[in-house]
Every structure is written in structure tokens, then in C-alpha cells.
Amino acid sequence: MEFELDAGWSLQPAGGATGSAFLGVYANQKYFLKRNASPFLAALSVEHITPRLLWTRRVSTGDVLTAQEWLDGETLTRGQMMQPVVARMLAKVHHSSLLKRMLRQVGGQVLDPDRLRQDLLHDFPENLAAQPQVQRALMDLERWVPRVTVQSVCHGDLNHKNWLRANGRLYLVDWEQVALGDPAYDLADVMAHYGNRDTWPAFLAAYEATVDEQLQHRLYWYGDLHLLSDMKTAALHKRSDEVAQVLRQFETLQSAH
After folding, report:
1. Where does the Aminoglycoside phosphotransferase domain start and stop, copy by copy (predicted)?
2. What is the mean pLDDT of the chain?
3. What CATH number belongs to 75-255?
4. Comparing C-alpha atoms, which of 97, 223, 238, 116 is closest to residue 177?
């Protein structure tokens, strides 16, 4: 990829599915370079949610190149995802008026619960739908659809590998799926994948959520949605071990209903 950088730069892929992220080194300094990152990145940098944005430039191909500070740290483990610091970071994201305003300005998509449900049910594998846990989850999705009364900025992909701990701070990276939607969408993503009935109360307390019956319904609904989506993707790619893992996560989620 031609980035039109000055002589003296060295680049190597930094991982990721899109192949658009690179570790750049110039004058013994490391930088995280990315092609066509969302313009929303500037607001995330201001809020200290992602590593600091250093510069942005457009190259002759029309691509936009961004450079962020490179932080040597560690991603969170699965076992660390229910820590209070994760809940507090989500609360910061969801309650930020700057992030909401900036995402609207750049035309951020909106997560509509009914559209999410319809997309999930389209071509859903019939053999999976026969599983008891899956049948129950599909029925729950059909029985009731959340009404989104408050829209927040939702990260949309809260895999533990997207959390970076460095220099005593926690950062949330990889914002390719950011959208406006129900904050319960993000909360359920973490809780369904990494928590259980014993860890959920403390997590929601750290988030400072008002836990009522409506929030509980939304968390279970979005939890079903996330796990069903995971299962559908795993089945389409013939990853039977991942399908089995999601079934175990369903057992945890549904035991708390």
C-alpha cells in the first residue's frame, strides 16, 4: 500500500481482518497507522478512549491515513472483562455528548432492533433452530422487541481483544462497527459473552445503571441477539467448536431469566 510517506519509514502489518492497519517506525518512534479510519476517531482521541491521534493526511489515491501513538500494552483476557473498569469505560462512551454529536455529524448508522432481528433470521440455519436453547432464544426475539428511547454511541464489537491496557490506562480500540443505538446492546455484548448471574450485578453497579425490569428485558433480548448471531456466523463457517461454545453461553444467559 502506497502511503506517500517520507524516506526513513518502515511499515509492517498490525493485524486485523481488513489489512488496513500498520505498525510504522520513523526515527526510532513507533506509530499506529491506519488507512481510512473513521473521522469519528478524532472525538475518541479527545475523550482519551483510544490512543492519541497524532495526525491525519489524505494521499493521492484518495485514501486517508491516520497516525496514532503506539502503546505497548496488553489486551484484556476473557476473565478480566467483567472488571468495574470495563463497565466505567462503557458508561463514559454511552454518556458522552461529544461522541454522540460527532457520530451524527459523520453520518453514523443507527441500530434498529427490528432490523437487527430481521437480518439475523434471514437464512438462519434450520439445524441450529432445532436446538432447545436456540428455540427459546428465537421465541424471545419474536415475542418482544425493545423500544429505543435513548440513543447512545455503541461500540458494537466488544471482544476482549479490542481492550488495551497500557501505561496504567484502559483503551477501547477498533471502532469499525460503531453506531447509535440502545446502550443495552453493548452491555449485553459483554455480559452474555463473559459474565454470569453472579458477576452481572456488580458490573451494572459499576456502570451506575438503573436496574429495573425493562433494562433486564433489554439485556436478555440483546444477549440472545448477540449469541444467535455468533452461532449463525460460526455455523456458516463450519466452526463446530464455536457453535458448542455459544450453546454453553446460552445456558448461562438463560439460567438467569
Report:
1. 35-211
2. 92
3. 3.90.1200.10
4. 116
